[in-house]
Amino acid sequence: MKRALRLAAKGAGRTSPNPMVGAVVVRGETTVAEGFHEFVGGPHAEVNALRQAGDKARGATLYVTLEPCNHQGRTPPCTRAVLDSGVATVVIGMEDPNPGVRGGGASFLRSHGLRVHAGILEKECRALNQPFIKHVTTGLPYVTLKAAVTLDGAIASSSGDSKWISNERSRKFAHHLRCISDGVLIGIGTALADDPLLSARIKRRPACRQPVRIVLDSRLRLPLESALVRTAAEFPLMVVCGRDAPPTREKALVDAGAEVMRLSSGKGGIHLPELLRALGSKGLCSLLVEGGATVLGAFLDNGLADDFHFFYAPKVLGDPAGTPMVRGRGRERMADAVPVFDVRVRRFGEDVMLSGRLTEHLY
């Protein structure tokens, strides 16, 4: 199952809105075949592994990280392929979390005489597919916060300069985070100050999938000459505004290739719960929030973030007027601070990345 998990992870950024799944076929102590779900719309992990195994699958054991599907989707049900292969035993990491189909694949295989064992490395299997599980059970995308920050907690100087806080290795990993996310989001303040492209620029074969670039822009102030708008025909761009934003600005952005989404807004900006529902309904399972400080604060204040990656660079700005990493409502007591869980540390050269969950339990 550990090998199947490693295989499944190879599909990161290519399978959404489907899960990442790995499969291994074993006869006795010998692995005879393996596979993973390589891209959305392509054969599932079980099918890839069983095709590779051929006749060697008869009487063998199939290890798979997620319960084989028993319904027709983009591809035929995997349970039929498992049954036809002659496999005798199926070992499943976790049940399919989809409430409408959970347990159906395992029950079908048992009813046809196969031995089925479930719940093997279940926690690890669930951790691998948190965006898929959250989306299929709640309809909402899994939200990750990302920021690069100095040791004294600034993401920009008082002049607005923020390039570059983190080093090249950290920035490369940040592009990897974009590559495996369905959407990447910033506020209009960051768009105006940095004029970012927000694409995933990473050398990868097959080519990295580009996330939907999302800008929270209540009054549609995003310039038509910005890098985001100029590349709207090449990389998907969504501008989210308030319901009373100028129609002429909307037309200009749409003509340039952007999608404009009108949602409720107020003093705090766009209504974020409504935004997440809308993005989830469009099939976005994961959302990378890159800031700025007000946007990060809003997600934290509303309890809408699931995890984070914060890159700390070995720099001290010492600027009392600099921009802090988070501008939220503030908390007077330390006991009221937002708790984090399962904190992990990773080095990128001299930079240190802290990662962790903002939800106590896995989905």
Could you name the key traits of this structure?
363 residues, alpha/beta, Cytidine Deaminase, domain 2, Dihydrofolate Reductase, subunit A, 2 domains, nine-stranded mixed sheet, five-stranded mixed sheet, 12 helices, 28% helix
Report the top-level CATH class of the largest domain. Answer: Alpha Beta
Tally of structural domains: 2
Residues in helices, as a percent range: 25-40%
CATH structural fold name of the largest domain: Dihydrofolate Reductase, subunit A
Tell me about the largest β-sheet. Answer: 9 strands, mixed
Order of helices and strands: HEEHEHEHEHHEEHEHEHEHEEEHEHEEEE
Shape: elongated
Cα-atom radius of gyration? 23 Å
Kindly report the spatial arrangement of strands forming the biggest sheet: 11-10-9-8-14-6-15-18-17
Residue share in β-strands: 25-35%
Supply the CATH architecture of the largest domain: 3-Layer(aba) Sandwich
On the 0-100 scale, what is the average pLDDT? 94
What is the CA–CA distance across the termini?
20 Å
Based on secondary structure, the structural category is alpha/beta
Low-confidence stretches: none
> How many helices does DSSP assign?
12
Catalytic activity: 5-amino-6-(5-phospho-D-ribitylamino)uracil + NADP(+) = 5-amino-6-(5-phospho-D-ribosylamino)uracil + NADPH + H(+); 2,5-diamino-6-hydroxy-4-(5-phosphoribosylamino)-pyrimidine + H2O + H(+) = 5-amino-6-(5-phospho-D-ribosylamino)uracil + NH4(+)
Protein name: Riboflavin biosynthesis protein RibD
Family: In the N-terminal section; belongs to the cytidine and deoxycytidylate deaminase family. In the C-terminal section; belongs to the HTP reductase family.
GO molecular function: 5-amino-6-(5-phosphoribosylamino)uracil reductase activity; diaminohydroxyphosphoribosylaminopyrimidine deaminase activity; NADP binding; zinc ion binding
